[in-house]
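Teaching assistant here, posting this on the class forum so everyone can see the example we discussed in section. The complex has two components, and the goal was to see what a joint structure prediction looks like when all of them are supplied at once.
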Amino acid sequence: MDSQCLFTVTRTSAVIELRRLKTKERESTTTNPDREKQSRRSKMTILGINFGQSYASIAVIDKASWIGHPQCIANEEGERQIACAISYVGEQVYIGNGAKPHLVKNGKNTIMGFRNLLGHTYDEVDHTTILTAPLLADSQTPAYTVDILVPPAPASKSASNPRSAAASGAATPNPAALEPIPSTKTITVPEVTSLFLSTLLNSATDFLGTKPSACVISAPTWFTPAQHDALRKAAEDAGIAVLQVLDEAAAALVGYRVGDAGENEKRDKKVVVLDMGETSLAISVIQVSEGQYTVLNKGRDDKLGGREFDNLLLKHFSKEFTKKTKVALDLPCGPDASAADKRADAKLVLAVEHTKRSLSASSGAATCAVESLKDGYDLSSSINRLRFDGLASGVYRQVGNKLTEVVKEAGLDLAEIDEILLAGASTLFTGLQQHLSLLVSPTTPVTSTIDPSEVIAIGCALQALHLETLEDGLKVDDVLASIKEKVDVTSQPIGLVLPGQQGDELAAVIVDSGAPLPVRRRVAIPVQGVNGKVALELWEGKHEVKIEKVERPPLEKTDDDEEDDEEDEEEEDEEVKTPITKKVKALGGVEVEVKGDKKLILEVIVQRNGGLNVKAWQEGNEAASDSFEI
Amino acid sequence: MASVVTLPLTLSASPSGWTKPTAAKPSSPSQLPLYPAGPSFISAARRQILQRSFEEDDKHVLAAREKEAAAKEDKGDGLSYPGLGEEDEPSHVLNQDPKEWKKQDHYAVLGLGHLRYKAHDEHIRVAHRRKVLRHHPDKKAAQHGANDDSFFKCIQKAHETLTHPEKRKQFDSVDWNIEDEVPDLKSLSPEEFVATCNKIFAREGRFSKVQPVPEFGSLDAPKKEVEGFYDFFYNFDSWRSFEWHDKEVNEGSDNRDDKRFTEKKNKSERTRRKKEDNTRLRVLVDDVLALDPRIKRIKAEEKAARDAKKKGGVNGTAQNKPLSAAEKKAAEEKKKKEEAEKKEAERKALEASKGDREAAKKAKEAARKNSKKWKKAIQTVITSSNYFQAEGTSPSPAVIEKQLSELDLLVELLEPEDIKDLKEKIEKAGNGQPAKSVLVEKAKATGEKGQGKFTEFA
């Protein structure tokens, strides 16, 4: 019933003439900025993609919840963690988790771990680590060759089932013409990426009902600009409207909304983003300054990941199997193992994946069952958390050591870290979380309030939302181009010293080191029973760690390297480390006349050039202020 | 915005003898990479791009927040719509049969009779709530002890219809309380005509998928607006539909054919009505266009402009009430003409000069030919004078050659008239010495040009 009523003009030259000036005028009268904005908002659908080396996840913000609640969605197979794998099997192409099992049977035609090759030339790629489809040697960009079957010519498609055609007595078509033709296909890494990302886009589009209007996609912290560009291009080829390619660590920070909680949160924090995925571990030390994230140090271990846990479980269960059935099985097996071992390996890898997930999800024992693992014997076993943590303590320690190393490289001590943020599905193990919380000071939280396997995707979606709802007519490109690779930050903390104060510490830090310039801070200081003048001094400080020996051993061990077993308790003096800020040099002072008990407000602005503006006044009496400028 | 954090300190009076420490510059900034992420980064970028100081940015943010808060308040819980849904409730509305909902005026039931299709969702929500509060069966039972919830049912039905976008569209399409009478346009004065048409087309415009709809406009609307209006309504894209008039399919009946028949009939009926409605609108626009005084005015103006243009060609700028366009055109025409004339003149001048040159060339040619003739005559005289040598002696070839070459030179130097003169003189003087003296005289007359070049005729 929506049929248009289009009329044709048959009368009056005056009207016929005006046919020409049509649309433009009308458009200009119909556009109304407010209305346009509103319609843009109601149309806005946001996508965030966490594109990992092994797994990807997607988060969306749609109309119904666009006020800022991103949601990590499952793809049509019901998977929130979508394996980055593509497998060519005959005429079929499997993408995502469905492609993973093919790595065993059809490894030659399965492509995995392609993300890290983006933006590289063939020569830059380390070929020894590639287990999947071989890379072509003769192309500029790395490319895979896979065997595929090309469907037969469409003319013979009508008789797709030759056997039934023969049985029915109809003319038997030439069987050779109906067979798919074996062929090889060359597909470059950017093409693979585009193909994979387009399936993610499809999943999001199916969920939302419309194509997402804006997207932010994550990239590892160590990606070079060339790799960023390659990823962006691949995503754009997949039809995704990419606003930004965002660092995974930054996405996690945005996802946890660090520095966005207002006054309940410390304004200056040193946080560690620990991202442990399936294949690698990435650690970033970040200075958060009122929600701006400066990078103090980054570290990476590309051998340490969830796969380690898989191998441990594999080993455990194969031993168990041998014990029970007396059938020799030593997993994980090398490349020259027997076919039976390899098959067992493949079967157990898939089963263990599930065990691993249930271990991190529930506190009970996790089962692992494989039918006919080897020589017709079944495996049915279970493992509880305690046992697993015992197995994995070596990996936990490696992670801890890496963390200590990266923090030390940043010139910090673990005691100075204010928060550890977890990202990546492998950090879901409670054992790992406990191990990390023992490393840092007891008050430092190890945060996983948002599912670490989803937080990066959620952060990407939030970032896309922030960029899409820019006010004041700002453009996304301008905003992103407003900073160069490095920015000026305060080099030393600036804090308060009260006159007549004892000791060599600052009373309070107002602007911490690593705050991007310009920075403004306001603090309120309660005043009590003063009817006259109060004074404040501003000092530049230096962070230090105070080490105190405490006689009684606390229940938790802090920085103990040798904790092999639970019963190995050491009764010795423990070191308690507290971060302090020593005063170094005076910058100036203010003196304000106060009346009553209203708070004193102190405003400190560090200018872009490093200059300092300080102003102090009593609340509600800004006219009577004291200030100085450097 | 600047957030203020209260420090866990307490200030006491400054100790006596405290002096401000001398100001020192803080350490120079160091450089670190920054993640371009998060709302704080965006605020910092905004300050940088728009070159705002912290105070200016605070002001903008504050203003934006106030605006937002104001917008939110506007949408509050109904307090902002005084009198909404509190129209009089006539008895025929109150005593409706809820089963006859197809005949029910949903807007009147909710007390929105004055707003109708203009009421937005918020109005409907607020009005519904007020009506429910007033007419809830529980309340009625408490007040009068009556157990009559029929009007409450009507309210619920009205709410259901009007909050469902599709159902509301269907109801709005056939809202019989909006008059769609078109008075006899022919009998109206131009002012009345415009007023009436404005009303009619504002009403018709509510069915347009494209919003906003151009107005009919005033009597002196410019051509562009008038044209835009008719253009819009000739391309009118209407959402009006007629599902409301559908006959109910008897749900109880098992007869599928019956159902299908009714559905089919309904469908064709809808199509027919839609077509009818489209035709109605087109006929209306046609009629209005035919009677529109503005079209007549525009035509007249255009004609005047054309006439002016024509006139402008004859007597320049002399025009009593010139239309600016016509005047311009006339001026242009004039300019063109002038230009053409100028061009013509130039062309003529060019041609003329060309003729002159040609004539001169011809004359020169002729002179050249003549001078040859005259030279020959002179040469004859010289030859017959035995090259001015003594009688009986034959002249030496060198002398002959010299005299001939000097003659050539002489002829060359002299103007054609002079050569003619020379020839006449030399012929008159006759052979021998007198001829030579004439030659010598002429050679002398060449003056500087021939100085020192003549030896025989010197």
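For the discussion questions: The two ends of chain A are 74 Å apart (CA to CA). The first strand of chain A starts at residue 46 and ends at 51. Think about how each of these relates to the inputs above.
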